[in-house]
Design a protein that fits this description.
GMP Synthetase, Chain A, domain 3, three-stranded mixed sheet, alpha+beta, 3 strands
Length: about 120
């Protein structure tokens, strides 16, 4: 498939938001990925309660399961108790159907990813 470039003299085209373009491309490829899932990861700190903004990091969504990394077993235990609130917040932002379960993975400090 070759790229088509805008040529002078062609009629003006409507600009589309990148999320609309990515959504249509992803759905055609059939990866099962969701633009909303990417937005969830990108807007994590705006969605979760303040106590989780710097203690938990979303990795992504597979199927309808959100994978979240934390630094300690204590954080994992506490976050598991807050899952209902977290799912309510996600549903409030994206509507139902994006995430219906949360998997918490402990990543010890010495091997934690950057920005966790």
């Amino acid at each position: 498939m070759r790229a088509k470039y805008y040529q002078p003299g062609e009629p003006d085209r409507e600009l589309e938001e990148i999320t609309e373009l990515l959504g249509s491309i992803i759905s055609r490829v059939g990866t099962g990925a969701s633009v909303d899932a990417g937005t969830l990861v990108a807007e994590w700190k705006d969605i979760v309660p303040e106590r989780w903004r710097d203690r938990a990091r979303p990795v992504g969504v597979r199927g309808r399961v959100l994978l979240v990394e934390v630094r300690s077993g204590t954080d994992a235990t506490v976050l598991k108790h807050d899952v209902a609130d977290l799912l309510r917040r996600i549903s409030g932002r994206f509507g139902g159907g994006l995430v219906d379960n949360v998997r918490v993975r402990v990543v010890p400090q010495k091997v934690a990813r950057k920005n966790l």
